Automatic annotation (TrEMBL):
Nucleus recorded as keyword: no
GO molecular function, a single term: oxidoreductase activity
Alphabetical keyword list: Oxidoreductase
This protein's name: Retinol dehydrogenase 13-like
Source species: Seriola lalandi dorsalis
Record bears the keyword Heme: no
Record-stated family: Belongs to the short-chain dehydrogenases/reductases (SDR) family.
Length: 326
């Protein structure tokens, strides 16, 4: 066997060298694509964390990590069957039985209000709110109130939920609000005159608008919460293998799917994709920072339109009007 192996090596040295270099190169690219890792050892014993959409993807992996740190974790999800199964898995993997499920449909403002009422009645504190749930590149759907689905779920639902829980977050200070945005915000624009994209709906255009709204919301919220001990963070988690692309993938031409499928090996796993969310939720050095944008467990400069304070205030006023906040 050894003789045959030695013979093969001497017979095909270039092939072996090429395969070796390619393998090492792919491994290096994959490690680079994985991005930063949260190194904080912070404990969350006695703390309460609420994660929207925590039944799958990076939300679930975030829940596992924070539960391991000792937090009481609330998974706020639309599909209760899947949420209960996810909660059981989070309990097993984290060794923490204090993981509970509550109903939340971000496409219904009534559901958002009901969850907020439930949390305020059942929880004495709320230390970290992670607005993680989202929808990407879906058809032209509407929320229960008639808002365009991506703007309604990704921004308006979280806007209302956050405002309803602000007093509890202030009471629990120092506390944090983490908004999961996307690099897509760089291509986004807030269409104040056509916020529901009725004149020209394009899935990616709408998604980018909603992710820019996350960044602007984080910025304006930070300004309004100065001196309260509540800090805010927005982030890009990376390109990740999750269910978020379930509406986008089937619309791609077959040849693109064939080309992209092998590249799936290189993109982030949900555990890798959750690292920046975890970082923003627990990293001690961020306690006095607020309103900033992060990627790969480090602060990054948001796109120019994400730094527009005037647009952030205008978006706040529009959002408050749309969800009925006075």
């Amino acid at each position: 066997m050894q003789t045959a192996m030695r013979s093969f090596v001497f017979q095909y040295p270039k092939t072996i060298a090429l395969v070796t270099v390619t393998g090492v190169g792919l491994f290096g690219v994959k490690k680079w694509m994985a991005g930063g890792v949260c190194r904080s050892k912070a404990r969350l014993d006695g703390k309460v964390v609420l994660i929207t959409g925590g039944n799958t993807g990076i939300g679930k992996e975030t829940a596992v990590d924070l539960a391991r740190r000792g937090a009481r974790v609330i998974l706020a999800c639309r599909d209760m069957d899947r949420a209960n199964k996810a909660a059981e898995d989070v309990r097993k993997r984290s060794g923490n039985d204090s993981v509970i499920v509550k109903k939340l449909d971000l496409a219904s403002l009534q559901s958002v209000l009901q969850l907020a009422k439930d949390v305020l009645a059942s929880e004495a504190r709320l230390d970290v709110l992670i607005n993680n749930a989202g929808v990407m590149s879906c058809p032209k759907w509407q929320t229960e109130e008639g808002f365009e689905m991506q703007f309604g779920v990704n921004h308006l639902g979280h806007f209302l939920l956050t405002n309803c829980l602000l007093d509890l977050l202030k009471k629990s200070a120092p506390s944090r609000i983490v908004n999961v945005s996307s690099l897509a915000h760089e291509r986004g624009q807030i269409y104040f005159d056509d916020i529901n994209q009725d004149n020209e709906y394009r899935p990616w255009k709408s998604y980018s608008q909603s992710k820019l709204a996350n960044v602007l919301f984080t910025r304006e919220l930070s300004n309004r919460l100065q001196g309260t001990g509540v800090t805010t963070y927005s982030l890009h988690p990376g390109v990740i293998r999750t269910e978020l692309g379930r509406h986008f993938w089937p619309t791609m031409p077959l040849w693109k799917r064939v080309v992209y499928t092998p590249l799936m090996f290189l993109i982030k796993s949900p555990t890798e994709g959750a690292q920046t969310t975890i970082y923003c939720a627990v990293e001690e050095s961020l306690q006095n920072q607020s309103g900033l944008y992060y990627s790969d467990c480090a602060p990054k400069t948001a796109a120019p339109q994400g730094l527009d304070d005037e647009a952030a205030k205008k978006l706040w006023d529009l959002s408050a009007s749309m969800v009925g906040l006075t």
